[in-house]
Amino acid sequence: MEKFVSETITxxxxxxxxxxxxxxxxxxxxxxxxxxxxxxxxxxxxxxMLLGGFQPSTYMILVASPSAGKTSFALNLALHASEKDVCxxxxxxxxxxxxxxxxxxxxADFDTSNRIEHYTLKEKLQLTDxxxxxxxxxxxxxxxxxxxxxxxxxKIKEMRMRYGEEKRILVVIDYLQLLVGHSSIQNLNQExxxxxxxxxxxxxxxxxxILALSSLKRPAxxxxxxxxxxNDYEQHADIVGLLTSDRWSICKExxxxxxxxxxGNVGVLLFVFNKASGKFISxxxxxxx
Length: 289
Fold this sequence. Notes:
Helix 1 (2-10) packs antiparallel against helix 2 (20-31), helix 5 crosses helix 6 and helix 8 (149-163) packs parallel to helix 9 (188-206). It contains ten helices and nine strands. By secondary structure, the chain is α/β, with parallel strands linked by helices.
């Protein structure tokens, strides 16, 4: 079939306004460059199938309430992306050292903080593997207390020059509401709207994927957020995801709803979230273990 299509669109003389050259290029894109078309792997098979990986020049927003696990989920994505590609993590809620400790817990798959008892042999092996994984990753953490979009833009350009134009880069911003805004803008949504426009431009200019975390007001116990609570500033995003989970239990189910996907499908993905370690496992992957 591929041979037939290739022969069909390259055979004969190409006339003015002919579709043959365009069809040939699209055929080449579909059949010969499949791996190149796939973006940075997320680490979750179902999410990769839905998004096609993290595509360049894409601005994404992940929305969740406090304690729903948005930083932990972002760390899961960042650790996987930085194994073969590059991840720049901009954190404003905690220090670089604090985020690194949480990354070690995610990579080791158990809670490494506030431990009094000795580690078991299995835990020691998991810790060693986690440190090796992080030491060989391309994960860069920035924790400036005066962070704004100009600072983020400058660091992205700096890393783009360091790694070259061909290297795929995921940028995580944790989180939007803590970005330094413009003093002339009083309304928070107006400020976030302006920041989102700037971040979208940065993603296009530098050919990176930007994943910006966004915090929603905490719901009352026994209730959950609805899609109508999403904000106007998210209209600038190419992809919007809503992360929800039961924050009252240690090992809990989490649900990621892709509510907007400018160039693809939307859908709901289910995960198991170990709050102690910060590790996310997709339900599909869990069933394959």
